Amino acid sequence: MSIRRQIREKNxxxxxxxYLIKFGEWAGDRELExxxxxxxxxxxxxxxxxxxxxxxxxRYTLLKTFFNFIKNTIDPSLTNPCDFPVLKxxxx
Length: 92
Description:
The chain has 92 residues and is mainly α. The chain is built from 4 helices and no strands.
């Protein structure tokens, strides 16, 4: 593995961790299944205000991936709030 790739992967993990920590602080002690699509939209809108569309899409994708990871590894009954149409405007 090249040095550049190692550095890039380290930075990716660092950035993901920071963003997910902030999301965790926002969510507090709430259960993930109680977080609605409207709340995710409000969170993303607030946290990405004034940022480029590519950043908004990245943040949305990161949260969607996080919820999918929880669904696939811990709770198959979890409904991913990022899968709802109300969040499509983040992707476009």
